[in-house]
Write a structure and sequence with these properties.
With 436 residues, chain A is an alpha+beta fold. Chain A contains 13 helices and 14 strands. Chain B is an alpha/beta fold. Chain B starts with 9 loop residues before the first strand and ends with a helix.
């Protein structure tokens, strides 16, 4: 065991996000071990106050470039709940298709661009091209397919424009859906190839376990592996499902000194959300190919190794593609119909919940009689994971304290990455110094 | 996003978040440029917002890419500067930590590695005055819009 370890991964970004890992070990004793998120409050809720119920989903779609469809869907559902709007079965299925495109987009990005370099031992995806060119090209291809899929259903790759309270403003043609279905069928071998590549380096996924409460959506009527419908559950909730409107009773957000981002807890002192949480609560409802993928990786319900979240994301890639092929079949069998969407303002309050790629997301809005937003509340998945990351750190560090400091640092960083955090979206993409 | 078969040779991409004042200058400029689409039939104008990693796909197999973004360059607020990727080095620290911290220079590098990078990439960086929460540009950048548009259009002619 090392007598002294000092790690200070101090990642600073300008606008709103920090994520720091601080470790101080003196004479073998852990003096400080913190996952710090000194994130400036973002006040997105204030951004929508005073705006019409019709504009909310457009504004919140800009909160995040990775989960923009998810934010828009959560907001749209909340608005519909507040205004008592019903959505047709066709629009519902198309929205799920839209949502699945984002799951594939985000998961392929995370698996391929962030996690794979860790598994291969390269500092980023760029040098990985030299070591595993075919694998990177396959990941890029899968990501590109997901983007084109979003374009078709959401009207854009990011920041969707087809969502509106009560339905969709534009739907694809049957020909376009048939083309998409074929593209998804053709993508299956690529997903298998990606899984094979990840499996080939799976031995580098750290073996660490900590019994954890996993929180996700659960759909019981009809039972389905859900990202969009259902209520809230956890492995501590004995299979019971909490209605979305009661989400504050689940998140129980609280303030801690080490983070300006609030923490969350339900039955224990922390809980996890994300792909592994969904898997742990709903694995038996996965599509056949997804189940096969989980089996290949030895991922089983009850897994409490947070590093396996990446594998759960990979498993979900199979699920969303296979399920979407079925959904398109259902839509084409019934035939697409042009639907007129109407809505009118009224006073009300409503909650909306969907699963972002990185975990359960809650939106809540209140409107006055003119349909103007008077209050808003958003609880993002990464905020819900912060406490759990800290608890993982506290169990992990003593177990790896005899390893070289650089390995300790890498394992802590990999752990944070495994949660696929959204600690710094929305910033501009260039910080530069001129060299010429 | 444009289908591969319909891609035009040149793409102009506006990046940024319109919820953070000047951070959204790239998107504001793309919206204005799109109004002149008829004058530039061989150019795609794309509001990519904060979908940074999607730039990889947007620029793939084009001849030229023009990227407009709010950039901290240490210049006077409101300054627009035209440069190429080779002119700068990144100072971003988070790009391998979260998907939400894309680094355009790294994406361009990846595009080159994959053999699908445009021959010509031009970046227009605009030094922000305010990155506060708000959907309006600062007065400095708002006053500069026409000059920025003129500079960018010159590059497209």
């Amino acid at each position: 065991m090392h007598n002294n370890v000092n790690i200070n991964v101090h990642h600073i970004t300008r606008v709103e996000g920090h994520g720091n890992i601080v470790v101080n070990v003196k004479e073998g004793k852990i003096e400080k071990l913190q996952w710090q998120v000194p994130e400036a409050p973002r006040f997105f809720e204030a951004m929508v106050r005073g705006h019409s119920y019709q504009d909310i989903q457009t504004i919140v779609s800009r909160i995040c470039g990775i989960c923009s469809i998810t934010h828009s869907l959560a907001a749209t559902k909340a608005v519909e709940s507040a205004l008592g709007l019903k959505v047709s079965e066709q629009a519902d299925k198309l929205r799920i298709l839209m949502h699945y495109s984002e799951q594939l987009q985000s998961h392929t990005l995370h698996v391929g661009y962030l996690a794979a370099p860790d598994f291969f031992g390269t500092p980023s995806v760029v040098p990985l091209v030299a070591r595993a060119a075919d694998a990177v090209k396959t990941i890029v291809k899968a990501h590109r397919i997901a983007n084109t899929w979003s374009d078709l259903i959401a009207g854009r790759t990011t920041h969707p424009v087809t969502l509106t309270p009560g339905g969709l403003t534009k739907i694809p043609t049957e020909k376009q859906l048939r083309q998409l279905q074929q593209t998804l069928k053709d993508a299956v071998p690529d997903l298998k190839k990606i899984a094979e590549v990840v499996l080939s380096v799976a031995a580098n996924i750290p073996k660490f376990e900590r019994p954890t409460e996993y929180v996700s959506l659960k759909q019981t009527n009809p039972p389905a592996y859900t990202f969009y419908h259902g209520g809230i559950t956890s492995n501590d909730n004995k299979g019971a499902v909490v209605p979305i409107e009661k989400w504050h009773d689940v998140t129980n957000e609280f303030v801690v000194e080490q983070s300006t981002s609030k923490w969350a807890k339900w039955h224990r002192d922390a809980y996890a959300v994300g792909a592994l949480a969904r898997f742990n609560n709903n694995a038996e409802l996965l599509s056949p190919m997804a189940k096969d993928a989980a089996k290949v990786f030895g991922l089983q319900k009850g897994c409490c190794n947070p590093y396996m979240n990446t594998v759960a994301q990979l498993v979900e890639c199979f699920h969303v593609v296979e399920t979407s092929i079925e959904i398109i079949d259902q839509l084409l069998t019934r035939g697409l119909k042009t639907e007129k969407v109407t809505s009118s303002p009224r006073a009300g309050k409503g909650s909306g919940c969907v699963e972002a790629p990185r975990g359960i997301l809650f939106h809540e809005y209140e409107f006055d009689k003119n349909g103007k937003c008077v209050a808003a509340d958003i609880c993002i998945p990464t905020g819900q994971n912060h406490a759990n990351i800290q608890k993982d750190f506290e169990k992990l560090l003593p177990e790896i304290l005899d390893q070289p400091e650089k390995d300790i640092r890498l394992k802590l960083e990999m752990l944070v990455r495994a949660y696929d955090p959204c600690i710094s979206c929305s910033t501009h993409f260039l910080d530069v110094q001129f060299v010429k | 996003m444009t289908n591969q078969s319909q891609k035009k040779d040149t793409i102009v991409i506006g990046l940024g978040n319109i919820l953070f004042s000047d951070e959204g200058i790239g998107v504001h400029l793309i919206r204005r440029l799109s109004e002149h689409q008829n004058e530039f039939p061989l150019v795609d104008f794309i509001d990519a917002g904060t979908g940074g990693m999607n730039v990889l796909h947007l620029i793939a197999n084009r001849k030229k890419a023009v990227i407009i973004d709010c950039v901290k360059m240490g210049k006077k607020q409101g300054t627009i500067k035209q440069f190429e990727p080779a002119d700068v080095q990144t100072t971003k620290k988070m790009s391998h930590f979260s998907l939400h911290e894309a680094d355009i220079l790294q994406i361009i590098n990846l595009s080159r590695q994959l053999g699908e990078c445009p021959d010509k990439i031009v970046i227009f960086g605009i030094e922000p005055e305010s990155l506060e929460l708000g959907q309006k540009l600062s007065k400095t950048l708002s006053d500069g819009i026409n000059a920025y548009l003129a500079d960018i259009c010159k590059e497209l002619c």
